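Review form for a predicted model. The reviewer records the input and the model, then writes brief findings.
Reviewer: anonymous (R2)
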Amino acid sequence: MGPRPPNRPLFGRPNFATLTLFAVCACLIRGVAAADGYPTFRGGPSRTGVVEGVVPRDPHIRWKFSTGEYLEHRHRLRDGAAYDWLWKGTGWTGQAVAASAADGVPPSIFFAALDGAVYRVDSRFGDVVWRSRISRTIKGSVSVAEGKLYVGSRDGGVYGLRARDGRVVFRFATGADVDSTPIFLPDRSAPSIVFGAEDGHVYRVDSGSGARRWATATGASIESSPTWIETAHGPAVVLGNERGSFAAYAVSDGARIWDFATGDDTDATAAYSDGSLYVGAENGLFFALDAATGKETWRFRAAKGIWASAAVDEANIYFGCDDGNFYALDRATGKEKWRRACDAPIWGSATLAGRVLVFGDYAGKLYALDASTGEGIWKIALGDFIVSTPLIHENRIYIGARSGWFYAIGDGPR
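Model under review:
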């Protein structure tokens, strides 16, 4: 059964539990990632990609280390061909996160790698505090909350780990790969996480035990990560799937609120700001939607597909494209403000800090652009392709590449 017709409301009135959860969590939606922590992919549950931080002006590698490797025999591609495939470095989306003081660990960053391990690294010197190999391969990003890490894997599991030592607390089994990054819902009575999976389901599970709260079938594979939104019916999450269904699901019970048809596979994760959603699809269309109803506000067509998630500020939308261009659009109208030609396709998402955009491309280049004009500030070569999203934290950039290296980049020579 295919996706429901676009924009059809499917949800009734909110109950008391829904309103309670809304009150507890609504404070997480507004603003940017805090200076002392960056808890999830794109900075927070609204996934805007905006952070409080300073981008280095004279970028140098402060430290780097090599992740492990995983050789997958007979890895099957979409064209049906099978090859031996060497996984190393970090994948799509592969963004590191930073713990806050509330998480009770010393200055650390955490990330998952294609060798199937989760790493905790001293952010100052690059020393590996612990490495926990939990799966054969992990492509997505981790989330950190209340002293735990949450991450999906290509073995179909979603794992909860202790941040202090990497010990696995639970494994929740889905029916297929999980590239989606969980978001944490701080309901005081029943904290939980929500994520999508390639078995076509959206799941909500208990963040302490991994027990399932609900699962909703969407009809097709999901690789996008959930974005938290506010609706008239209560809090919800939105995700896109392989058949172009981009839909909102009630946090309380997983009921579908509305469903919008993008026309193609929608792996990019939506950004949410001031009642609007912004998301691109693999047909090259980029949309602005009313988050309450799922109705389209405007659309923009790029030359090729969009896998990157957008960064959003007060005036503009920013994203990279498979056509090798990086775009800035007017947030109100969708009209192009500027574009910057890069050296290769862009699948990784940009992070915005202090009016500077940072992102990588398939040529292994890392860019810093002026968000106002698109002019290049600097460009450095890291080698092999970059599909991961940079973390900007404590005046440094942390990012991995498919070369197998993970980097900390800061001002001045090492």
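Findings: The helical segments are 16-25.
Further findings: The chain has a mean pLDDT of 90.
Recommendation: see findings above.
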